[in-house]
Structure formats: C-alpha cells, structure tokens
Amino acid sequence: MTGGEPLLHSNLFYLINHIQKIGISDIRLTTNGYLLKERASKLFDAGVKSINISVDAIDQDIFGEISRHPNTARVFQGIEAAVKAGMNVKLNAVIMRGKNDSQIIPLLDYAAGLGVKIRFLELMKMGHLYHSENGLFFSEKEMLAVIQEKYTIEPVKREYAETSNYWRTSGGGTFGIIANESTPFCHDCNRLRMDSNGIFYGCLSNAHGEKLSPYIHDDVLLTEKLRGLLRLKQPVKFHGSELSMRNIGG
After folding, report:
1. Domain hosting residue 72, numbered range
2. Contacts of 118 (CB under 8 A, 6+ apart)
3. How many domains does the chain have?
4. Is residue 173 part of a domain?
5. For residue 224, is it within any domain?
6. pLDDT of residue 86
7. What is residue 4's DSSP assignment?
8. What is the CATH classification number for the domain harbouring 168?
C-alpha cells in the first residue's frame, strides 16, 4: 500500500484486515513516516511486517525544504518506532543534484546505525518532471562515487524482479540504488499498480490504465486484460510518463 500517504486513510486498519481476508498475507506499506510513531506497533500487530519510509535528508533544514514538514524529528521517531516494533524497515531517498546529494553519506550512516537498508533513487521522469530538464538528476555512478570516497563496497547478487541493485559497505551498512535511468530493471519487472479509483497500470512508462472490476467474475476476460497491461511494460529501458506518482503511488 502506497500513496499519497496511506497513514492518513481513516479506514486503514479495516482495509488491512479485509486484504488479509481475501488471502493476501504479505502486506507492505510505504509512508513518509510523519504519523508512524503512533501507529508502528499497531501496524505490526495488524499484519504489516515490512515498511518503506521516505527520508530524503538527515540535515533538518534540507529535510524540511524537501518534505515541507516543519517537525522533521517526528519522521525519525517514526522510523525508530518501526524498527523497535519489529518491522522490516527500508529507507528511501530520492537524490537530487544541489538539493540533497550532500546527504548520501549521512543517510547511509544513519541506516547502518539502525541496522536497516537504505535505497537511493534516481529522479524519475514522472508527472510534471516528464518534459522537464531541471538539472536535478544525480546518477547511480555519481552516488557510488560519493560512497566510495568513504567506504569500500561489495555488490550483492540481484534477486529476480528486484528494483534495486544492492551493495555492502566496509562500514557494515547495506544500501541499494533504484536506477531507473542508469540501470533499468524493465526486463524482469513483474509489478502492477492499482490507484485509489481501482485503475490498474502495467508500466510507469505508459500512462494507459484500465479498471478491472467489470471483469472480476470472468476469469478469461480478466486474465486477458491483465496480460494486456503487462504487455505495456518496456522491454529494456524506463522512459517515464505523464502519470503522477502522487496518484498511483511511490
């Protein structure tokens, strides 16, 4: 479950319960962490064992400028509450040139200190950024160069359909890079997304979506529609689209 911000959903725990009732036991959630401190234990008890938390900086001023949250301490308290609750925590940071590229090492060290993985993301050409040349793009190669100024790194074998390439550092940390532009993972992507209106999307590089609820009781048509959406996937390279990540999830 992603967003927007799923922790704002008034019926979140009702939704989690009903997702489990239809036979989906592996429920994961992506959040900005702002409301997580108060909800981490309850989420874990409800069945959410894995959580991705967006945190784009350690420095309070940089974090505040990017997230527009005046109380950034709440996010870090939420991260630590999730770790304490027993969740499998991953931190996500979109790295932008001149904005937070100075935060790569501080974020890496923070994650290592908590014993959790962090994933650095290349900026995606989505929504209002699709036609934009804004100079913010910071590549996987540049991220690795920054990290190697402090640590020796060792690559970890990539799992099938994994969005990240992972490395271990000589400092004991583990980090991944989601490099849609530099190292795309389109060739074995197995993901579908459903937005809050029930519209399914097969690929972030294709703005076509389809509502599948009319076919839910017709296995043949439903399978055909799902295969059609999967065929929209790019065979080699991510191109982006005018889809807004705010609507279909981070």
Report:
1. 6-186
2. 90, 91, 92, 93, 107, 108, 110, 111, 173, 174, 175, 176
3. 2
4. yes
5. yes
6. 97
7. S
8. 3.20.20.70
Q: 159, 186, 213: which is the final residue of a domain?
A: 186
What is the strand order of the sheet 199-201 is part of? 193-194, 199-201, 209-211
Shortest CA distance to 35 belongs to which of 69, 83, 85, 1? 69
In a domain, 1, yes or no: no
**For the chain, how are helix, strand and coil distributed in percent, rounded to 5?**
35, 20, 45
Convert the pLDDT of each residue in 5-14 to its tens digit. Answer: 999 999 999 9
Q: Which of 99, 94, 112, 96 is nearest to 150 (CA)?
A: 112
210 and 180 fall within a common domain: no
Per-residue pLDDT tens over the stretch 192-211:
999 888 899 998 888 889 99
| Listed residue (64, 162, 57, 160) closest to 101, CA to CA | 57
Yes or no: say if 36 and 7 are a contact pair by the CB < 8 Å rule.
Answer: yes
- 110 and 143 fall within a common domain: yes
Quickly count: other Cβ atoms within 10 Å of residue 94's Cβ. Answer: 19
pTM to 2 decimal places: 0.92
Question: In terms of domains, do 169 and 56 share one?
Answer: yes
Helix (H, G, I), strand (E, B) or coil at 198: coil
Kindly report the average pLDDT of the chain as a whole number. 92
DSSP letters spanning 195-215: -TTSEEES-TT---EEE-GGG
8 Å CB contact between 51 and 30: yes
pLDDT range class, residue 61, cuts 50, 70, 90? very high
**Residue position matching structure tokens 């809050």:** 196
My answer on whether 215 and 138 are in the same domain is no
Domain boundary (144, 159, 186) is at 186
Strand partners, 126: 241
